[in-house]
């Protein structure tokens, strides 16, 4: 199975393409920054969009926090 990675880097310029990738994707890795609370909060919206586009709740999703090495964490480990 081929692997495609769409790294939007948090920019909105890729928004029109998101649903196409969501529709064709078989699994998703959602990444947020532990030093930016807003990126963590956006994960639930993005997940809901994936579920809506796929039309099913049984979609493999992994949530990953990055920038864990930085001292100014605002998203808790819990």
From TrEMBL:
<dbReference type="GO" id="GO:0005525">
    <property type="term" value="F:GTP binding"/>
</dbReference>
<dbReference type="GO" id="GO:0007165">
    <property type="term" value="P:signal transduction"/>
</dbReference>
<keyword id="KW-0547">Nucleotide-binding</keyword>
<dbReference type="InterPro" id="IPR005225">
    <property type="entry name" value="Small_GTP-bd"/>
</dbReference>
<dbReference type="InterPro" id="IPR020849">
    <property type="entry name" value="Small_GTPase_Ras-type"/>
</dbReference>
<dbReference type="Pfam" id="PF00071">
    <property type="entry name" value="Ras"/>
</dbReference>
<protein>
    <submittedName>
        <fullName>Uncharacterized protein</fullName>
    </submittedName>
</protein>
<dbReference type="GO" id="GO:0003924">
    <property type="term" value="F:GTPase activity"/>
</dbReference>
<dbReference type="InterPro" id="IPR027417">
    <property type="entry name" value="P-loop_NTPase"/>
</dbReference>
<dbReference type="InterPro" id="IPR001806">
    <property type="entry name" value="Small_GTPase"/>
</dbReference>
<dbReference type="GO" id="GO:0016020">
    <property type="term" value="C:membrane"/>
</dbReference>
<keyword id="KW-0342">GTP-binding</keyword>
């Amino acid at each position: 199975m081929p692997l495609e990675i769409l790294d939007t880097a948090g920019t909105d310029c890729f928004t029109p393409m998101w649903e196409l990738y969501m529709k064709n994707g078989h699994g998703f890795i959602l990444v947020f920054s532990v030093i930016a609370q807003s990126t963590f909060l956006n994960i639930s919206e993005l997940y809901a969009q994936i579920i809506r586009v796929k039309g099913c709740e049984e979609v493999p999703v992994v949530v990953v926090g990055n920038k864990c090495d930085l001292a100014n964490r605002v998203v808790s480990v819990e």
